[in-house]
Amino acid sequence: MTLRHETASAAFGALVHPASIAAIGILVINDHVMKQVAPSWLTGKISDFAGLYFAPFVVLVVWEASLGVVIPRISGRTVALATYVTVGVFFAAFKVSSEAADAFVRIVGMSGVRISIVVDPTDLVAVVSLPLSYALWSRQRRYAARAATIRPLRRVAVLTAAALAIAATSAAQPTLTSIAVDSTDGDLLYAVLVSAGDNDGLYVSDNGGLGWLRVSTMTGEISVDPAHARTAYILDAPDSDSALLRLKLGSRPVEIGPGRRGQGTYDLHSSFIAVGPWPTPVLYYGFRGSLWITEDDGVQWRNIGLGEPVYALAPTTTPGLLYAASYGYVLRSADGGKTWTHVVVLPGNGDVTSLVAHGQDPQLLLAGIGKEIRRSTDGGVTWTSTIRYEGNTRLELAHWKIVFDPRDPDRAYALFGGGCCSAVYSVDRGRTWQEWGQAVQDIAVTADADYPLVAISPSGSGVLRHRGVVPGAWDSVGGKLPLKN
Fold it and tell me: Residues of the chain with pLDDT > 90: what percent?
């Protein structure tokens, strides 16, 4: 038996050993049952102990099935020691450094797979599982010939179960999915937490993230009302029959949407809220492609659909003037949406995922189209490309979030991919863009000069609050959230 086959057989023998089978079962039960029924510091650690016990066996099997063919002369013990050291180093890096965790999440996210890593240095106690695991592999190595007789079906079944268990525990962590800031109070933050069992819901902080209070068990996309302070909307709430709820702090969320979840003509993209900041504010609601309007705070709605799905809407500060993006077209309305005219066919490859109008110049528009941002200074008649994402994210996953700074008319911020990439900023109204190195998952602009932005880290395990003028420093302010079980 060659050294390569000996190492692979020992890894398989260790993986099908009753101790490993028990570790796999413990990890699955702990992640999917115990963390929900009895969340505590203990259930947060058990998965790490169990996962570290059998994860090196999976890595060794993968090594021997791939690189071991190309580099067959490395001794099995050397490969095993390198594997255990590598697993330990990566585990320690992810648990100690949010930068390392976020970088890994970002790399994985570029393939379209979303995972979550909880940064917690106290989890390092679980590395004691590694020497125990290595001892089992060494023992199985002495019986490699016997391990080689394990039936292929059993090998595949156990390896698949182990890989799925590792993947499941990465994706099942409590994760922040949406962040928002009150329109007038930069210290009033909203955050949505999911995959946290009984701790799922909408959290609010009125002191810039130093303390958090859950105000609702509802989850979904959060959007604040720029015309009404201390008012936010929960869009596409999966744990409610309604697709739109309004939350006024101090009271329970109320259903105000025109339809129930699952209704609507189209199901092509996420919903959105836009408010016409006019003397009498008008609320627009993009619901599964249809466009709805209410002028009485949600009591009555009417569908002003354009006959095509509406991808994005951009009200301006000019009363009644707004722009819409639909199927590659830019449309314009001067009467609040009663009538529309086609302005131009948008250039570029891909869907429009963001459309914003400048707060002082209603002719200045920025649009996220596919993998690029395009800019118009004549109300959408002509467009120029100002930045393009050159990464390998698939076009169908391309998504932009673009915001102008309400305090500085020359500044704008943009985020591509929701966690895969560094945010960019502009100091010349979107004409040119600069990257400042911080990858984030979601971003929101505030009215606070000292803390102009808040964001979610790429791993979804932290709230970040930007301090000072961009580029600058980010402070972690999500420590009081139940981000780990």
Answer: 24
